Amino acid sequence: MSGGCPYAHGETTGIGTGDATGGQGTGNQYVDYARMDTLHTIQHPRTDSPFEMSFILISQVKELLFRMVHLEVDQARQRLAEDRPEAACRALRRAVRSQRVLVDAWESMNALPVDEFLEFRSILGEASGTQSFMYRLLEFTLGNRGTAMVRSADLAAFPELAAELARPALYDEVLRHLARTGLPVPEPLLDRDPAVPYTPDEGVEKVWEAVYRDPDGHRPVYELAEQLLEVAYQFSRWRATHLLVVERMLGAKRGSGGSDGASWLRQINEHRFFPELWTMRSVL
Fold it and tell me: What does the alpha-carbon distance between residue 166 and residue 77 come to, in Å, rounded to a whole number?
C-alpha cells in the first residue's frame, strides 16, 4: 500500500451513470453507485479455512467504521474552530453511534474459537491491527499523538498521518473554543505544538470543574463536555473489548506484528482521551 490514502482523493459519479472509474457499470444502480461489485472482490484468503474469510471481512468492516468515526470527529473539530458547539455535539453524537457498532464488531470475532483461529493465524506474518493507518489517524485526530507504535514507513506511505500531526487535534480546538468563551484556559496550551503529545494540565481541570459546578451557566460547554466524554468512553470500551477477545483467543501469547499482545493492550487500556474530564470528577 503506497501513495497515500485513496479516500482523500475519491471520485464521485451519478447514480446509474456508470462506475466510479468512468466505465459502463453493471446497470444496477445500487451496485454501481457504491461499487458493491468491487467491494466483494477485495477479500483474498490465503488458506482454505472458511474462518479466515470471516476474519478478513470483520477486519475490513472495522476499518470502514474507523473512517466513519474519523469523519464525524473531524467535522466536530471544524465546527469548534467556527465556535459552533451545538453542531460539534451533533457530529460527536453521530460518531458515538458508529463507535457502538465498532464495539459490537468484536462479537463476531469473539465467536471464533482459538483452534479455528490458529488454522490461519500463521499466514498473518507481521500483519497486525496496530498497523492500521485509519485507526492511527483517528487516534491522532482525537489527541493521542504518540508515534511509538507508528512505523516510519507508514508515515511515508500515508501522508495523511503526518499532515494530521501538523494540525490541532480535536482537544486542542476544544480548549481554544473554551478560551474564546471566556474560560481561563492556560495560555501556553492555546498555541502549543500540535505534534507533541498532550500533557494533562491542572489549569484545564479547574476549567472543567467550574463548568460542572455551574452547568446552567455554561450550558453549551457542559453539553460539549458530556459528548466528548461519551466519545472517550466508547473508545475505551472498544479497547477493553479488544483486550478480552485477544485474551480469549491468544491467552498470553505475543500479538501479531511483534506486539506484546494482551500485555500491551492492558497497558493502552489505561489511556484516556480528554484526561481532565476524567480527573475532574475526583475534585467535584
Answer: 14
Q: What are phi and psi of 19, to 5 degrees?
A: -80, 175
Assign 252 a pLDDT band (cuts: 50, 70, 90): low
Residue type, 240: A
Q: What pLDDT score was predicted for residue 40?
A: 94
Chain CA centroid to CA 41, Å = 25
Grid coordinates belonging to 40:
466483494
Residue with cell 476474519: 55
What's the per-residue H, E or C state across 144-171? Answer: CCCCCCCCHHHHHHCHHHHHHHCCCCHH
* Cβ atoms < 10 Å from Cβ of 263: 12
Largest CA distance in the chain: 63
For residue 96, count other CB atoms closer than 10 A to its CB.
17
pTM of the model: 0.85
Q: What is the DSSP letter of 36?
A: H
